[in-house]
Amino acid sequence: MRIILLGPPGAGKGTQARILMEKYGVVQIAAGDLFRENIKAGTPLGKQVEAIIKEGRLVSDDITIRMIADRLDKPDCKNGFILDGFPRNVAQAEALEKMLHEKGIALDGVVQMAVNDEQLIDRISGRFTCSGCGEGYHDKFKKPAHADSCDKCGAKGKFTRRADDNAATVRTRLETYHSQTAPILPFYSARKMLKTVNGMADLADVTSQIEAVLAG
Ligand code: AP5
Fold it and tell me: Cys-Cys with 17: which of 28, 107, 178, 181 at CB 3.0–4.6 Å?
């Protein structure tokens, strides 16, 4: 499986990528996660991008494309990958096309997760993650079985919330999606690669829809 998951903030790209990753034994390449890991580790890249991410703006194409190209070169990508949050504008889509062509890799599809903007704020503001294993949860839609421990790795008191998950930044991120990322849709549609699923359905249903559009 070699796919791109496309959709605005909170569409469920990360959630579905993690489900598919476990089911199909492929890796998730999440641009936002890679940036956040660098910020947490205090690397030069992390220092360069921290303020931009906090404001909900896009990191420069140069930095982002280099980071993804390096990640795609890692041996664990050989069995397949799910790109989540990349590409995010037409320049990145063109760079990815060139990169994959040079590596002799073909994509199986580009899946757009169609969602209702109004409900995204709700989804994002209720989101939290286990810093032990990265498992994602939600105050309403996906609660852990015990309030302060992770269902997956058992870590206690390790839940964290993202610095860019506040209402003002989410609005900027949504505007950025519509002005800069949505123009990617015709790019992939022209190449007959674009498939659309209803991202407002429940979690398992969205996974089944993704599997169905990729098989069909
Ligand atoms: P990034 O980390 O990619 O954030 P994002 O695109 O804003 O996406 P999110 O992670 O917020 O949402 P998601 O779609 O993964 O939703 P999730 O599955 O968590 O990027 C962050 C920043 O990094 C950017 O703003 C930018 O600054 C920078 N950046 C990243 N990539 C870049 C690039 N290519 N170029 C330049 N800059 C870049 O779901 C959300 C919540 O909803 C969860 O709690 C989940 O449990 C719940 N949920 C999910 N699906 C469902 C469902 N079907 N029903 C009910 N609840 C659901």
Answer: 28
